[in-house]
Design a protein that fits this description.
With about 500 residues, the protein is of the alpha/beta class. About 30% of the residues lie in helices and about 20% in strands. The protein is globular and about 90 Å long.
Length: about 500
């Protein structure tokens, strides 16, 4: 006699939890080095939790090991934040490169509407001049490229390229020549509409001869494949190399730490970085006869700075008046140098009777840049994980939007707990939502306010594309106290 399956009565399906992304490790620090590892099969990179294994791979007399000692010698350091050190050797067999400038942000090609576009560029040291481009055919990406790469651009030894989509594209301007003599310097046009503004292109770049890989190419090669948040180097970069690398890093969710031993850099390349708004590059001065102590300063600073564990309570920090283990105060600092550093966003290691960091907010404070980037990537991953780990679907309803906003709310709450933000007074005239009072009250009580456009008001095109209505988040930073004024009234 056959049995009847109980599936006729009860049916059970076993569902596995869908995988989401882990948070970006905001305490992961990379050394990009031109030194060759001892091992012939080192690979693209290796990860380290102590300096001894760095010595095994690069030798105890290497610059890379010296920097690792400074990194792991700080207290707290990247390990405190749950991070690690990753070392990326630059390729020794790179091909010759063009000089290339990558646009600083995405653009909508449909917005290239002027009829008198020009670009002013000094190409390969031939002298600056306006190059007329004229009107851009914005029909599609191919017609935009054809318009950009007209005869005048080609004859000047330049070529434009486009990556991304039509409505969200990034522009790259390159020389057709390769090698160290290939260069581009962008300036403001004398006549016509300056196309570099609309293309988000600025600055300068140099090419590279065959041999050791350029620093910016090492970053481009590894940024998407290896998880690192901070970057230090085993060499002092030439000014042009520093500017083009800083321009690249500004487009990434990364921070690089650059040390110099030259006071002239305060009003030179460091001022250029500050004036260009390249806040992801932290400029550090430690004077001396060579750059080794300045590179040590940058490495120690980076490890101390990236030690924040954003998952904790009251863990946010500022670098002002902190100490770098293994370094004495810069003996060449005086008030004149300090004032120049303060006005140009350069951090120094000063002698106050004890050695202490003196930080400047002229190019934003380090903790502002770090905390905001961390908040950004945590929110991005929280949103992705919410969308990616739901077994069914998230309806395009207010209930669905509330669930999505809850994922963002959890991150904002955590960044209040770790003291990146705090409840307080909203001072900006800009408010979100239908009621300014709601915005102001939420900031006063919670430190953040999250608002989304009502589903009923959403554009049908966006609804058809299954996009959530725009979510706007207002967040109140807690700031930091770096100095104090006191008045004493004494009466006899």
């Amino acid at each position: 006699m056959s049995k009847i399956s109980i599936d006729n009565v009860v049916r059970v399906s076993l569902l596995s939890a869908l995988k989401g992304l882990g948070n970006v490790n905001t305490s992961a620090l990379a050394i990009i080095t031109d030194e060759v590892p001892i091992s012939g099969n080192y690979g693209v990179s290796r990860t380290y939790l102590d300096p001894i294994t760095v010595s095994d791979d690069f030798g105890s007399n290497s610059e890379t090991f010296r920097l690792a000692l400074k990194i792991f010698g700080q207290s707290p350091n990247i390990i405190t934040g749950g991070g690690y050190l990753v070392i990326i050797p630059r390729s020794q067999t790179a091909t010759a490169k063009t000089a290339s400038i990558l646009g600083s942000d995405f653009i909508n090609l449909a917005n290239l509407t002027a009829t008198d576009y020009s670009i002013n560029a000094n190409v390969d040291g031939g002298g600056a001049s306006d190059i007329v481009i004229g009107t851009i055919d914005t029909t599609d990406i191919s017609t935009v490229l054809t318009s950009l790469n007209n005869t005048a651009i080609t004859n000047a030894g330049l070529v434009f390229s486009i990556s991304g989509e039509y409505a969200s594209a990034k522009i790259t301007l390159s020389t057709t020549a390769t090698g160290i003599t290939a260069s581009i310097v962008i300036a403001t046009v004398e006549t016509g509409t300056d196309i570099t503004t609309d293309l988000k292109i600025s600055g300068s770049a140099t090419g590279a001869d065959a041999g050791v890989e350029r620093i910016k190419d090492a970053i481009l090669r590894t940024a998407g494949a290896i998880n690192y948040f901070g970057i230090v180097f085993n060499e002092k970069m030439a000014d042009a190399t520093l500017i083009e690398t800083a321009s690249l890093v500004q487009t990434l969710d990364k921070i690089m730490f650059v040390g110099s031993n030259l006071q002239a850099d305060i009003e030179g390349v460091f001022k250029t970085i500050k004036d260009s708004g390249l806040t992801h590059t932290r400029c550090l001065l430690y004077t001396g006869n060579d750059s080794s102590n300045a590179l040590d300063f940058a490495s120690g600073y980076a490890s101390r700075a990236l030690s924040t564990n954003f998952q904790g309570s009251n863990t946010a920090q500022t670098m002002h008046l902190k100490e770098i283990v293994g370094l004495v105060a810069d003996e060449n600092l005086n008030q004149t140098v300090l004032d120049l550093a303060k006005s140009n966003g350069v951090d120094v290691y000063a002698d106050f009777g004890v050695p202490k960091l003196f930080t400047s907010g002229a190019n934003s404070y380090f903790d502002q840049v770090y905390n905001r980037l961390a908040l950004k990537v945590y929110l991005q991953i929280a949103g992705f994980n919410f969308l990616a780990t739901v077994q069914t679907k998230i309806p395009q309803t207010e209930e669905g939007m509330n669930a999505l906003k809850s994922a963002y709310r959890n991150i904002c709450s955590q960044f209040i707990i770790n003291n990146v933000g705090s409840a307080g007074k909203w001072n900006s005239p800009i408010t979100y939502g239908t009621s300014p009072e709601d915005h102001i009250r939420n900031i006063k009580e919670q430190g953040y306010f999250i608002y989304s456009q009502p589903i009923s008001q959403q554009n049908q095109t966006e609804r058809d594309a299954r996009k959530a209505p725009l979510i706007q988040i207002a967040f109140k930073e807690s700031g930091a106290i770096h100095s104090s004024d006191v008045t004493i009234f004494v009466e006899a």
